[in-house]
Specification:
Two copies of one chain form a homodimer. By secondary structure, chain A is mostly helical. In chain A, 59% of the residues lie in helices and 3% in strands. Chain A has five helices and two strands; from the N terminus they run ααββααα. Chain A has a two-stranded antiparallel ribbon with strand order 1-2. In chain A, a hairpin with a 5-residue loop joins β1 and β2. In chain A, α1 crosses α3. Chain A is elongated. The structure holds a DNA duplex.
Chain lengths: 123, 123
DNA sequence: CTAAAACCTCACGTTGGCGTCAGGTGCAAG
DNA sequence: CTTGCACCTGACGCCAACGTGAGGTTTTAG
């Protein structure tokens, strides 16, 4: 596949794909003329990258998480495992954080509906 | 309270507090000499701001959500309610997103532990 | 063969949430 | 009175994740 097709299928911009390559997040082969071409797996990979970004993981960590498709590289999974586990913990924190915020927003909504309601617990 | 005390209690920088005021997120009174002073409720307010930021809400929206403590302003809660509800939906999306990412990270961890495991569903 | 898509490589612009330095004050203690 | 710390107001710096041209090349359709 060429870059435009991947971009469309993954729902991101062409620029973003070039950026991902520049950052070492997504490899691409080259045609004799110098144009990028991607395997079919690239689309799924891009979606994964997007999710990881959406989850707030720094690109540093995303770069360290090339699963399955790069499995020919038998690198030390030690630090990777630790770092990934650590990120998992942070994800959990963010989830509970978001749940708290959702409750807060519910408070705001309730207050907007009934201004006389008690809101002492919000301080 | 003065700014340093609020900063310490809320666990943020003095700069951040000045920034919040600049953005209209947090009001402060002034002493004759021009120094900020805050009510005790400011600490809780700052924590709320931090949570909303951590949840990815734009400051534009955070500015629109001054609950309880500013209740003397009887402004139109109509648009506020809608916007808040919309943000609640987006929060829900982010939560499911994070749950997905957490599963992905679990995949990565599993692969790191057992490189021969099936990972076809990751594509 | 030619035109027009689609692609390429720089390289600078943008936005948010502060960090950080510079240069000047308020105020409480000794 | 003076020392020193906490505070003040600008104003510029930074980083990430791209957007947005500029200016040139490659591929493909007709």
């Amino acid at each position: 596949m060429r870059i435009g097709e991947v971009a469309e299928k993954a729902g991101v911009s062409v620029r973003a794909l070039r950026y991902y390559e520049e950052q070492g997040l997504l490899q691409a082969g080259r045609s004799p003329g110098g144009r990028r071409h991607y395997p079919d797996t690239a689309v799924g990979r891009v979606r994964l990258i997007q999710q990881l970004y959406a989850a707030g993981l720094p690109s540093r960590v995303v770069r360290e998480v090339p699963p399955c498709m790069d499995s020919d590289e038998e690198r030390a999974p030690r630090a990777l495992l630790d770092q990934t586990a650590a990120e998992r913990v942070r994800i959990d924190w963010r989830i509970t954080d978001l749940l708290t915020v959702r409750d807060r927003l519910d408070d705001v909504i309730a207050i907007a509906r009934d201004p006389d309601s008690d809101c002492s617990h919000v301080q």
